[in-house]
Amino acid sequence: MTAQALRVLIVDDEAPARSRMRDLLADVSAAVQVTVIGEAAGGREALRLAGAGDVDVVLLDVRMPGMDGVEVAQHLQKLDPAPAVIFTTAYDAYAIRAFELHAVDYLLKPIRAARLQEALLRVGHDGAAEPEALHDLRQAPRTCLSAAERGKVHLIPLEDVVFLRAELKYVSVRTAAREYLIEESLTRLEQEFELQFVRVHRNCLVARAAIRGFERADTAAGEGPWQVVLAGIEERIPVSRRQQHIVRELSRP
Amino acid sequence: MARSINHNAHTGALPDFRNLGILLRVLLIVNGIALLAAMLQVPALRDWPGQFTDNAVLVEPLLLLSLLVLAAFNTLLHRLPYAVAIMAVVAIELGLTAAMHVAGRGLFAELQADLPRWLLIVALVTAMLLVYFDLRGRALSPAIAEARLQALQARIRPHFLFNSMNAVLSLVRQEPRRAETALEDLAGLFRALMADNRELAPITQEVELCRQYLALEQLRLSDRLQVEWHVDKMPADALIPPLTLQPLLENAVYHGIEPSEIPGVVSINIYAVRDRLHAVLRNPYRAAGNHHAGNKMALGNIRERLLLHFDVAAELTARVGDNAYEVRIAMPYVKAPRR
Q: Which fold has domain B155-335?
């Protein structure tokens, strides 16, 4: 073999499916040289393994408990270089249509060795999945946001996030403990998490669950504009004039 | 083993006088006729309530007594050929009318009215009801044939089929014996799906089917899926519509177990209280699920088939309790004929 072996990570919540994938990878080894660098039963474990060592391809089950395959793929994008992703699914009419639409590589379970071989041979050419395609594939909001840190993916559970604020080309993600910068659009975040977050200002989304109340800012001229008081942080977020109505809607009696 | 309650062709059948739905219909129709009669009898329409009460005093005792007697002779009547059974019902009604007429002579002045007129009215109303129930039976009969089709619609999810196939394939090389058992279970499941599911089937058969299904799921999910059976009080001779429990278990696994990272328990409790058969299924509930559409479809399908078999005598309720989703089914305890 002249080419270096593909380093593969197998991700599936079902043990028999992972073992089947190992068998198949062994079967195609004559045509594609692969090294299985690990198996993961869930999204978090997959991200940990992918961050720990270099992975070329992630064979990723779509339907998994906790964090589904599409979300895992989105977080994997934060790695540099991001591994190629080949989705596997038994049956998901919606996902399959979306994969076709965005030319995302996928394998139908039970997987045939020949199909797996084709998909692996394509990996070198196409590169990683497009972030835009992944965004469109998603059926449910992510459970976590993610930021790249020292070559690894750091997951920020959504329930820890107190507010999201647009800053120049980044969005600052604030938790009670610290702040992260992520490269995403605030408008997209607002659409995705409309149930959990509410826009209080042109540049700021606040977690509904973190709102402790509203108060008037003290200014020299008497009563100033409304501000949001948030759980766990000192900072007050101003409510813009256009969003004044949320003060009434969200004030606790 | 064919235990048939609904023959393929509808050849005229007496209504089941012990079925709550039938009883309610009889009560409603006869009282409706009494109301109509009251409206015709009074000179001014506004007087109808008084006349209706007068009519009810006459009609109600006979009506209730008739239902009681017919319910008592229900089994006997159903053994007779349809034509004979009809005549028997009419004869019972006429006999009761005559008996009431004699017994009530001293109580009601109205009963002085001539007996033949009452006998004629009772005979006509009885005949009308029997024709109605026969027509209704004919109307529902194709629907019962369709129950089979509907059972197929409550079919196994492709998601389950393909994942199971994948799991079996993974076993073929390392554990051929377990692969064999799994394939046998899968075959059993599909045999049940493709069977003629119009007729009631032994509950033990359904439970066996459920066990095969759960064995396949446990193959994939291993200890994430824990099953608790409470069937010590299940009557082994009970008959139920086929594929009543298995689709519910499939829902329980799909919605309650698969989306969760922590292991969960699916519990099945089947028992009989007097003439009612109860099945209670529980699974862990996750508030964040977004798969409710499929679940509603399966519930609706089972509810519809229960309705076809038992009318209003069966019910299916689903509710969300403390972190658990619970489906309860109650239906008449139909015993398999002894052989």
A: Heat Shock Protein 90 (3.30.565)
